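Q: For a teaching handout, I want to show students what a protein-ligand complex looks like in token form. Below are the inputs, and the small molecule is zinc ion. Please produce the holo structure.
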Amino acid sequence: MLRNHKKPMARAATTLVAFLSSVSLVLAQTNITAPPNKYTPADDVKMGSDAAREVEQQLPLMRDSQVETYVRNLGARLVESIPPEFQHPEFRYSFKVVNVRDINAFALPGGPMYVNRGMIEAASTEGEVVGVMAHEMSHVMLRHGTAQATKATPYEVGSIAGQILGAIIGGGLGQVVSAGSQFGFGTAFLRFSREYERQADILGSHLMARAGYDPRDMANMFKTIEKTSGNGGPQFLSDHPNPSNRYQYINDEARMLNVSNAIHDSRAFSNVKAYLRSLPPAPTTEQVQRSGNRRSTSSRNPGNGYPGNNQIGRVDPPSARFQTYDEGGLFRISVPANWQELPDNTVVTFAPAGGYGNYQGQSVFTHGLEIGVDRNETHDLRAATDELITSLSQSNPRLRGRASYNSISVAGRNGLHTVLSNVSDATGRPEQIELFTTQLNDGSLFYAIGVAPSDEFGTYQRVFNQAVRSIQLNDNYRNSRY
Ligand SMILES: [Zn+2]
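A: Here is the structure, written as tokens, with zinc ion included.
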């Protein structure tokens, strides 16, 4: 739509007028550009479909034609409305409903989208459901998952595939899907940044408007999600952190888009809502996770955990001889020669035989040292360390401690050190956890976590300290590679 808010200029300025009017067109909606990405759209499709296979093994899909058809139709309407510049011909959008109560939805690179039943139940209009779907779809269109991995992979800690999967799926679901190590699956590493959230909100608004919906419904749904968040917030908000002024800028965008006669509601929506109310309530994701983990103890593909068929059991004392590992260029460390290097999803663990294994579908270790990098937005050592401990205690509910930090030096940089206590899920024994952190040049948190049973901690504490003193960091190495 062209707005004629200026007096016509002299004839000689025709080109200038044309230029100005194209500017005013651009101003009529906020311009969004996809972030830098070193992957190809085909990579998105491959990673997304691998992750989708995992997701569908772990989460209960709703196999119900009424609900499925409804959500698929909404999705199809959005797909038809994708602006040409964001169309990736390789992408295959699909829309499925997960039979869980939590208010959440997520989309994988290349197109597979999952909407929780709880999201539909919490929405008060069809526009609100469409709003969340448009937001999720915008993450896909902007290729945020692989853009995030582009940012993450310069520090190649652990296997890249696991890191990407984790980065893409994020949060609690990342834990379900990639069955990451018991420690260090820092949620800070996995969340989308607030800037990506803002992009998905704005592009999602455009998508809604093009599909005949009112973006204000998206803003309303975010309010609903926030209201029901209570303690800790629903997963949606931890995977999609609220940018400031979210409600305001979506409403501003809606005004610029000038949507008229928008669809807010439909008969199909109220039918589906009434139908869902008639069904037995859905379980929470946590309940599914718990029962799923039990089931997976016997059936889980060992390729998802530590390599080989290791059992937690008797552990030889740490060898006095140390061996040095060069970890993909980012760091070097010396650890007892009888410890093995266990690359896992987002971390590297050094542990002795008998001191690590797969327990209830999770990689766990009872003796050893884990090294990882946790991306964070704070760029403050203490705040980032706090955040890491918070995420550790989410996956380890019996974790206690953090009375204070000691200032230490890690690889010649300012670092923090603290000791925490925990009870091992795998053995039921009390254990001590020693945490060492410092910062990389880009503000990421570099950490080492030592774990040992409390009654052996004296021996292991000396080993952890010696190993951490040997760490050398080289976070400039990537400049020569990328
Ligand atoms: Zn988001």
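A: Two things your students might notice: The chain is about 40% helix and 20% strand. Residues 135, 139, 192, 197, 200, 240 surround zinc ion (CB under 6 Å).
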